[in-house]
Amino acid sequence: MPPQQYYEDGELKGFDIDLMKEIANNMGLKPEFKIYEYGGAHEALLNGEIDCLPSMTISPERKKDMDFSRAYIQTYVVVAVFENSPYQDLTDLNGKEIAVVTNTYTEEWAKRYLGSLNANINSYDSIQGLVSDVYSGNIDAVVTDQIQLDYYSKNSNFESRIISEKMTIEYWAIAVKKDNHNLQNEINDVLFELDENKALYELKK
């Protein structure tokens, strides 16, 4: 999902792409990128179809099935509405339509923390489909992370307003297959080096 990965003029771009190229280069490898729907990427990692999956939120549930590199991005779960929306805080969302992207940490979060509001959680395969339904008026609020929200607010007409405080911190890392400690350690070594020489900071700009 943008800004982590996206196509521009037929070319795959984004922070994840730049990061994995940099890591592979430092390991003397040439990366091969495969595109999946979000949930499909999880299964591909577990089945051994791919070796690693970048920008995954670390969570206790996911640690049961996969291992993670050191975290390299910190963001927050946010609940956002249109700028001119009448909703002012989470209590206003009682019985309302909430949008999330399927198989994401924010979907898990929404089901866990907004269920008590009797809100209807609508899961989408992509952030693009989610935003489209927000425009059409079918959705009252969006649960996403700060990075995604900032990207779409900047690159589209999605004039949003956050109605929640920074709810939960998300730490993003590179997921590898469970017990693949060799790859995990190699990635960690490169991430440490990229952090030390400020290359990681430059990639995030």
From TrEMBL:
Q: Per UniProt, which keywords does this protein have?
A: Signal
> PROSITE patterns from the entry?
SBP_BACTERIAL_3
- Give residue ranges for domain Solute-binding protein family 3/N-terminal: 6-203
Compartment(s) of residence:
Cell envelope
Any Pfam family hit: SBP_bac_3
- The source's domain of life comes to Archaea
Q: Which InterPro entries match?
A: SBP_3_CS, Solute-binding_3/MltF_N
**What is the protein name given in its UniProt record?**
ABC-type amino acid transport/signal transduction systems periplasmic component-related protein
Q: Which organism is it from?
A: Methanococcus maripaludis X1
